[in-house]
Amino acid sequence: MSHTTSSVIMVPPSDFCFNAETAQDNEFQQKTDQPHYLVKESALEEFTLMVNQLRDHHVEVLLLNKHHGDPEMPDAVFPNNWFCTRHDGTIDIMPMKTPNRRLEARPEALAKLLEHNGYQIREINQLQDSGEAFLEGTGAMIFDHRHTKTYAALSERCDSQLLADYNRQRGYETISFNSFSRKATPFYHTNVMMSVGEQFAVICLDSITDPQQRASVESQLKADKKQIIDISLAQAEEHFCANVIQLRNLRNDPVIVLSGSAYHGFTKEQRQQISAHGKLIPCDIHTIESIGGGSARCMIAENFLPRQ
Q1: Rounded to an integer, what distance in angstroms lies between the CA atom of residue 114 and that of residue 137?
Q2: Which residues pair with 294 in a beta bridge?
Q3: CB atoms < 10 A from the CB of 157, how many?
Q4: How far apart are CA 257 and CA 254, in angstroms?
Q5: Which of 109, 140, 169, 222 registers the highest number of CB atoms within 10 A of its CB?
Q6: Which segments of the chain are extended strands (E)?
Q7: Helix-, strand-, coil-residue percentages of the chain, each rounded to 5
Q8: How far apart are the C-alpha atoms of 15 and 43, rounded to whole Å?
Q9: Per-residue pLDDT at 220
Q10: Is-contact 107 91, C-beta < 8 A?
Q11: Residue segments in the chain with a per-residue pLDDT below the cut of 50
């Protein structure tokens, strides 16, 4: 099973602004005094540049645009949380924690976009949403598709029971743990402290404070022969160095998408280590990062569906 894909879905930040609902457990969102229209303008500019960069590197980018009558969706630019696609043609719609983010889930529009571009959908599976337990897609879960493993930092957005059930149903092994920021609060999403590529993992081991849990995660990665690029809490929190994603473009070349901040946040040695696994595509998304509290990986939803 392929770990990476050359096709991604992205959503333009048409309603982008500071989201007070998600800020309750995302300490990386920063309020701004800038007028709303300027923030939105900057976000759209950054987004368009990023899409063009990916396309220039031969990655297929499918855009899920906002339609007339759709509600306000301040965080729509981070679509990787509300759905996951699978190699077998399934799309899973995930339960989201905040009410205004639940509005982002537009399965019909997503299905139309994918089918229009020649992808096959076998079924759309709505995960049970009790309104009390959440599992926010590839924000909460870091998949190693090749080794059918899922790494997950437990939080308000990653419920241990839902996680275990979901992985059991997929036939994936669950490696869950607790991960904390320098303020001793749980990281709101696993992808802020960890990313797994075909043969590497960027991870902030310092954030896993329980020695047994840390040793267990490390031994899993080593068993699968991943090169571990261990980053500091400052690199994870201030530069989003773990929020990167490896893709393979349409020419089957590996590429690694990251923000400009993450690129500059890595040490020279770490940058050399990670670039051995694919051409780095640094994107300047500082407005989206600082106000939205998410980075390049959060903006990319992978499309693993089979072609029609």
Answers
A1: 18
A2: none
A3: 28
A4: 10
A5: 140
A6: 7-10, 60-63, 83-85, 90-93, 123-126, 141-144, 149-153, 173-177, 194-196, 200-203, 227-230, 245-248, 254-259, 279-283, 301-302
A7: 35, 20, 45
A8: 10
A9: 98
A10: yes
A11: 18-19, 23, 26, 29
